[in-house]
Design goal:
Blueprint (H helix, E strand, L loop, with lengths): L1 H16 L24 E6 L3 H11 L4 E7 L11 H5 L6 E4 L6 H10 L3 E4 L7 H13 L4 E3 L7 H11 L6 E6 L7 E2 L12 H5 L9 H4 L22 H12 L8 E5 L7 E2 L12 E5 L5 E4 L8 E5 L3 E4 L4 E4 L8 H5 L11 H11 L7 H20 L3 E4 L4 E2 L3 H4 L15
Parallel strand pairs: 1-2, 1-3, 3-4, 4-5, 6-11, 7-9
Antiparallel strand pairs: 6-12, 8-10, 8-15, 10-11, 12-13, 13-14, 15-16
Helix pairs in contact: 4-5, 5-12, 6-9, 9-12
């Protein structure tokens, strides 16, 4: 076990160093000068044409430098093909947009990387911690650009707030207050007839066999797959990838994470979703995390669901979606020019989708690179595991395992249905 841990540590350090390295771009994407031609569009394939997929379809098709030329969806009424692997076989597709349900992200992402396609994966990047590391490895080994849909990295208000915190505007960060994210429910819904155009078995994919129900199929339905443990991580992986990503960014932890986590309050009691559908939820104890530098994060609801509330020795900053507020208010009164002169510099992006396309052209890592998406998703998963286990846990963010806790480590991954295993 010791040698394995050391191998993992060596690999992760090498991966972190590779974040700044240039990429090799597949030749079919390149213009005559070794980059995408100035008048050429990046050809995209869209996998998953539900609510998020339709939004991304419009966002990318409105650009002059990209176009979606093929759609794949298990509902044949919404796509050109039902099996996304047919899309990956096309030589004229340079990159893919993955807007599938959460439980499909790892398999689609790894297959796309193996096919040499650049990838834009909607948040959360993963369903489990272990598959996130495999997605990073697949992207690195196949030298592709992999952007995660944590778009607040490309919003000026969020960038400014994180820049100020990183550069000491509020002094030493004493503690952080996050949202009180809800954990997922168990599924107790009875099955209904499957719609004619829908390949339900493929939609379920790697998850355990589940009868069709419209409240599951609609990601944000009643309750929606986003709320069920078989397919997602509840609000921890719904809004958490946005809010926790801001915590990671502001604390300078893009390649790391907390080292200790625990809960306080009544033991967690998962609620089973049954008919009639209700908007209630399970009781949930409060989650606490501590980073190696001593900063404590308390998920008590004082922070915005898309951000967090940072308390420092000299002031406080609350990050929201696309903005921030501070105490004292003048903390935020800085210009882009002043931000550019600060000692610590964070990557600046003005458009998340544009950043993805630009990075494909330039051969560089995007603002929400796959490693960043994996690390932010990991903290979300840790929040759920803390509740499920219900005791103080020690986390090693380098080895990406819990210290001396087999039960908690068993939750780092989950079994996949036969035929939907992750590639070796």
């Amino acid at each position: 076990m010791k040698s394995t841990a050391m191998d993992r540590r060596t690999f992760i350090k090498a991966g972190a160093a590779a974040l700044a390295m240039p990429l090799f771009i597949p030749s079919h994407v390149l213009g005559g000068n070794g980059r995408v031609g100035a008048n050429d569009r990046v050809n995209l394939g869209l996998i998953g044409v539900g609510n998020m997929g339709r939004g991304l379809l419009g966002a990318f098709n409105r650009r002059e430098d990209a176009q979606v030329i093929m759609r794949a969806d298990v509902n044949k009424a919404r796509g050109d093909v039902q099996d996304y692997r047919r899309l990956l076989e096309r030589k004229d597709i340079d990159a893919v947009i993955d807007a599938t349900p959460d439980h499909w992200h790892s398999l689609v992402g790894i297959h796309a990387a193996q096919a040499g396609k650049h990838i834009y994966t909607e948040k959360p990047l993963t369903l489990t911690i272990s598959e996130g590391r495999l997605m990073v490895e697949a992207s690195r080994r196949n030298t592709i650009v992999h952007q995660t849909g944590q778009q607040q990295r490309s919003m000026f208000g969020n960038y400014r707030a994180c820049m100020l915190i990183r550069n000491g505007a509020i002094g030493k960060v004493l503690r952080v207050h996050g949202a009180d994210y809800a954990s997922p429910w168990e599924n107790g819904l009875e099955g209904e007839a499957v719609p004619e155009d829908l390949d339900w078995d493929r939609w379920v994919g790697p998850a355990r066999q589940t009868p069709y129900h419209p409240g599951i199929y609609n990601r944000r339905g009643q309750p929606g797959s986003v709320w069920l443990r078989d397919f997602s991580g509840g609000d921890w992986t719904n809004w958490g990838p946005h809010g926790i990503d801001q915590i990671q960014w502001a604390l300078g932890m893009d390649d790391s994470g907390p080292v200790e986590l625990w809960t306080e309050g009544e033991p967690f009691e998962p609620w089973v979703m049954r008919e009639p559908l209700r908007r209630a939820g399970p009781r949930r104890p409060r989650v606490f995390m501590r980073y190696a530098n001593g900063t404590e994060v308390i998920f008590d609801g004082r922070g915005h669901q898309s951000g967090a509330h940072f308390v420092g020795e000299k002031g406080e900053i609350t990050i929201t979606r696309g903005g921030a507020r501070s105490d004292p208010p003048q903390l935020l009164a800085v210009s882009p020019e002043q931000l550019g002169q600060m000692p610590v510099q964070l990557e600046r992006s003005g458009n998340h989708h544009g950043n993805f396309i630009e990075c494909i052209r330039a051969g560089r890592r995007p603002v929400a690179d796959v490693e960043i998406g994996h690390r932010s998703a990991t903290v979300c998963h840790l929040g759920n595991i803390a509740r499920w286990v219900g005791r103080r846990l020690r986390w090693d963010p380098v080895a990406e395992r819990f210290k001396d806790d087999d039960e908690a480590n068993a939750l780092l991954d989950r079994e996949r249905r036969k035929g939907y295993e992750l590639p070796a």
